[in-house]
UniProtKB/TrEMBL annotation:
Gene3D superfamilies: 2.60.40.2210, 2.60.40.2220, Glycoside hydrolase 38, N terminal domain (3.20.110.10), Glycoside hydrolase family 38, central domain (1.20.1270.50), Golgi alpha-mannosidase II, domain 4 (2.70.98.30)
The organism's place on the tree of life at top rank: Bacteria
Protein name: Alpha-mannosidase
InterPro entries, per the entry: Gal_mutarotase_sf_dom, GH38_beta-1, GH38_C, Glyco_hydro/deAcase_b/a-brl, Glyco_hydro_38_C, Glyco_hydro_38_cen, Glyco_hydro_38_cen_sf, Glyco_hydro_38_N
Source taxonomy: Bacteria, Bacillati, Bacillota, Bacilli, Bacillales
CDD domains associated with the record: GH38N_AMII_SpGH38_like
PANTHER family given in the database record: ALPHA-MANNOSIDASE 2C1 (PTHR46017), MANNOSYLGLYCERATE HYDROLASE (PTHR46017:SF2)
Keyword Metal-binding annotated: yes
Amino acid sequence: MTKKSAHLISHSHWDREWYMPYERHHYLLTELMNDLLDTLERDPEYRYFHLDGQTIIIEDYLQVHPEKREQLEAYIKAGRIIIGPWYVLQDEFLTSSEANVRNLLIGHQDAAKYGVISKLGYFPDSFGNMGQAPQLLKQADIDTAVFGRGVKPTGFDNVVIDAHGSGYESPYSEMYWSAPDGSKVIGVLFANWYSNGNEVPVEAEAAKAFWDKRLGDAQKYASTSELLFMNGCDHQPIQRDLSEAIDTAKALYPDVDFIHSSFEQYIDALKKQLPDDMVTIQGELRSQHTDGWGTLVNTASARVYLKQLNQLGQTLLEKGAEPLATLAHLAAGKAYPHQLLTHAWKTLMQNHPHDSICGCSVDEVHREMITRFDKSRYLTETIIDESLQVLAVQIDTASVASWPKDSLPVTIYNMTGWERTGTVRIELIVAKSYFKEGPNPPAIAERLAQLPLNLDNGVLLDDQGQAISVKAEDLGVHFGYELPKDKFRQPYMARRIALTFEAQQVPALGFKTWAWVSDPIVQAEAASSPLIATDSGMTNAHISVSIHADGSYDITDKETGFTYEGIGVYENCGDLGNEYVFRQPDGDIALTTKGLPAQVKLVENEPYRVTYEIKHTWLIPASASELFEEEKRKMVPFRKRTASRSSELVPFELITRISLELSGKGVQVSASYNNQAKDHRLRVLFPTGLTASTHLADSIYEAAERDTVPAKEWINPSNAQHQQAFISVSDGTQGLTIANKGLNEYEVLRDGKNTIAVTLLRSVSELGDWGVFPTPEAQCLGDHTVEIAIYPHKGNAIQSGAFASAYQFQSPWFHTTAMGQQQGTLPTSYQALEWSGSSLALSAFKMSLDHDDVIVRLYNLAHEADQLTLKPSFPVTSAYQSDILERRHYSAELVDGFIRTTAGKCEIITYAFQHKQS
């Protein structure tokens, strides 16, 4: 009989902030780390400590105790304190694909400073696990993952239903985990949670009771004789007498080998004994084969404002600062700001731990998050501005013969992966006057205000001399300043105008330039437009919209002829849950705006865009009933609460703006409201009318296909799920894709219409979980604005290319203006990288820290191979197949400037281009 080994792994799961503000947790962290270093110093039998898989703990500790750096570094290098591979323990579904990769990349970069890193996919408390995790881990040379959630528990709370039958997704706590592309890692579930070896008794009688139970619990689910015991828990101080406790256990159980172990030691032993009947679990781990009450998915709608700020911050980095800084380096030799971008990413990722971005902490935590979002964004925007200024002076505007010498060029930048057309609004300085610091002489502003602008007769010309429709507005005189690189700041007063127009066919990862001519020789002739405002809606070449008296609307896809009827209805219901879980009161019937008269008016009718405004004045319950406060004080579990909604009503005014652009294949919607109600949820509904049993949800490096009807074990009336950029339903012939900006929760309703419901707001009053933690700011009172885009299409979201429109919807345009007539090295229209692949998405265009290679990352959304071609427009000396850690692997052949390859199903592909300055 094989002797059993009990591996005790010491750790403390360190939620950086949660039920206390960050600095209170920070204080406890310094105590923990001081105790750890003291224990390692005095007790050679206390061999290892797993530092929770996140390198930010080192930063946080050394911020207070920089004098401990040498001692800490010595124990890390000796392998006694195990660090990495992440920077933070993020929520995987509420952070972007690239954010998940940068978390791993920066964790590796930080650990590299100490020379060692834990090669373990560590997901102890993630609220579900991304399906592509095995592929990401394998690309980082990690072959094993440990996790606490996502799989139907093999023994959570030690409730045994059918230990080796269909009752569990795996008969063991060990299994294989496969990504959609086929990448596979060993998966280890914390079947008895990550605290099953916590606070081991030293005294023999207590130790006997402890180990009789713990050994039995672990053996129920372990596939080998190697048993895992996690010696720690949330913010758990280290067990200083663990060595004595292990000696006691050894004496009590001579047939068990008790080891103060590390994950590396445990996994090495585990691999030697894995049985042949290991189960392979596939893709996302979202606890779908449970009763549905423990998935914690409703953190996706807690404090929606945080999700919106996060989506903006991530997008500005991924689709703004990084590609623009890369262009500035390639075009003008400007040094790529590696350290500044890393700092911006780190500041942003400090908001990505699961108890932070999930919105499930006390109010003080989330107030501090707002500041971090701002700090990261300000730095990111500065990098964007600096890069745009460098690029602006490189564009050769003097060579365009059709532009008069006094014209003002404007350049629009598209940093998405596809050619883009859309309406843009830019501000343009037409005249300015510098002045010395001090009171501004009124004469400057007065003189600038008197300048004739001739806005009605001005035209916007492309670089072929063709005039396009534009709306010009006088913005008056404003103060501004410049910060030259070689002298003191320069204040000025400037006369500004705004130009709004449709920027057509702006190249992917590139730009296109137009020129504003205020005094043209020839006036442009008005061209007929397929964009028309009708009495009850609007139409263009692709779709038509008909708005009803209650503010709902029908959208007809002109390509398929299919009409989506009655979409855009708002739904409101009560919520007796908390920041983690939505719970509708018993008997509560959701209110909707269906049939509620709305004020509908046309507010914009331009050649490039038509917009209607829809106003609802709605009365909804003010809060939950008085019983709710008593139930919370008494810690009545949320599923047993009997409170209802209050009979008191408050006004809830919704202002919806629905727009159709000249070339738009979708409708853009914004909704603004001032929330004065509590304990409720607001959603917007999109009935598809399509027959389908599954749907596609944008997730981490994949469009995950999910079942609309949950598993038979599911009893939660709600089946809300996570999304990133879009959710899509298709019957194979046509489909409807709903894109969003920072709205991470949706549900496809089982109502016979496959209605897509997107959560816009959830107002709750407590943290939930293990105690009574009031969070009044989680009621999200005050003003809110949300944005959605609706894309009807042929086939599904991948086949039709609607996924690309959804990704572009999240990405801002960038611009530079008023360069004047100048010679330069860049043409007026430019694309840095040409590529093709119908089911592929461009994820990153940046530079690597190690080699200054240009990094290009794409991923295949289809479950079948696709052909990929890449052609860089910048000079390349060599190209390499790379990975998510941006390492050079084998050379990639360039033939006639092209890389031609096959992207496997759901494959994430990274290339590194060594370049030279032209």
